[in-house]
Amino acid sequence: MRTVVTGCAGFIGSRLSEALVADGATVVGIDAFTPYYDRSDKERNLRALEGEQGFSLEEVDLSTARLAPLFADADAIFHLAAQPGVRASFTDFDHYVRHNLLATQRVFEAAKDDRVPRVVWASSSSVYGDAKDYPLREGRTALEPLSPYGATKKACEDLARIYRARGCETVAMRYFTVYGPRQRPDMATRRLVDAALDGLVFPQYGDGQQSRDFTFVDDIVDATVRAASAENPSAIYNVGGGEEATLASVIALVEELSGHSVDVDRREASRGDVRRTAADTSRARTELGWTPRTSLRDGIAAQVRWATEVRSGVA
Ligand SMILES: NC(=O)c1ccc[n+]([C@@H]2O[C@H](COP(=O)([O-])OP(=O)(O)OC[C@H]3O[C@@H](n4cnc5c(N)ncnc54)[C@H](O)[C@@H]3O)[C@@H](O)[C@H]2O)c1
Predict the structure, then answer these.
(1) Residue 124: CB within 6 Å of ligand 1?
(2) Among candidates 108, 106, 109, 84, which has minimal Cα distance to 95?
(3) Confidence band (pLDDT; 50, 70, 90) for 315?
(4) Which sequence spans correspond to the domains of the chain?
(5) What region does 313 belong to: left with phi over 0, alpha with psi -120 to 50, or beta?
(6) Is the CB–ligand 1 distance for residue 81 below 6 Å?
(7) How far apart are CA 315 and CA 308, in angstroms?
(8) The domain defined by 2-311 carries CATH number 3.40.50.720
């Protein structure tokens, strides 16, 4: 299979690229190395792909580059590039417009022109906002995002619907709080593990009772790969790990698994943060044959191990 992975140097995109290459696919990886976090982190993410025959890197920006030549002959595009993060979307919205809306419309348009059979792309649980009922279900739960970031992902879902009607088969994966090795430095679990290992203060926004449906990165990759080859896939899938946990319980787990206590600095709840997420994943289970396989305990243990290896120069 000939594939394109956008955002290949990022947290999820690099793991996905590795999984595809290991499966015998070729990957044209696209990344602009945006400065949201350190380039050196992204270069480290790509290290395992260095010298791989099946992988090539194109450092281009999807919001400006000519995409048709890069997409020609692809069997599938995995579009993961984006400007993530809820908090910064209130102040730096121009980045979200460019890297989410503009980039995604250009990806869909070029994929349609190149007749790429399928585009699997990263949406987010953020499209739901605070719901009236849980679990959150595709096609049932209202989409009322609480952040500008969530609003851009919701708008991207509209773009995907428009292009699907125009013959470009788009499949949206609504990822729920992804964690594990290589997690982005702005994300709570990463900051928590860093605080535990380096003796730093962990700023806790809110009362700690907010909960998330945590999803291990390899389970996210598995669902995403399955969506590329499924027969008659739906337009949208929830991808959630199935183990809802409060921030307070994750703090306790990180303390236990790292062997260090964490100094918590309690702050006001952050704008845009929802109180709860919990995915109904029956659609992905039935149609993609997908099941999340990593427990929160095993996944956090893997993330602590990785962070320790980074500190000792092994990872
Ligand atoms: N991590 C999560 O918990 C989570 C949850 C829901 C959805 N998502 C979505 O999953 C995708 C991957 O997230 P991640 O956590 O790996 O983020 P990441 O920031 O680690 O990776 C995104 C990559 O995209 C690249 N990029 C951004 N704009 C680009 C552009 N215009 N052209 C080319 N490359 C560009 C960045 O340089 C970065 O390497 C994103 O679409 C994100 O919104 C992530």
Answers:
(1) yes
(2) 84
(3) confident
(4) 2-311
(5) left
(6) yes
(7) 9
(8) yes
Per-residue pLDDT of 41-83, as tens digits, reads 999 999 999 999 999 999 999 999 999 999 999 999 999 999 9
DSSP annotation of 232 reads S
Asked whether the beta carbons of 86 and 150 are under 8 A apart, the reply is yes
pTM of the model: 0.98
Instruction: Please state, in angstroms and rounded to a whole number, the distance separating the CA atoms of residues 306 and 6.
Output: 24
Number of Cα atoms under 13 Å in the Cβ half of residue 150: 18
CB 189 within 8 A of CB 195: no
Cβ atoms < 10 Å from Cβ of 286: 10
User: Which protein residue's CA is at the shortest distance from atom 21 of ligand 1?
Assistant: 10
Compute the distance between CA of residue 143 and CA of residue 233 in angstroms, rounded to an integer: 21
Per cent of the chain over pLDDT 90 is: 99
**Ligand 1 atom with minimal separation from the 126 CA:** 6
pLDDT in tens, 240-277: 999 999 999 999 999 999 999 999 999 999 999 999 99
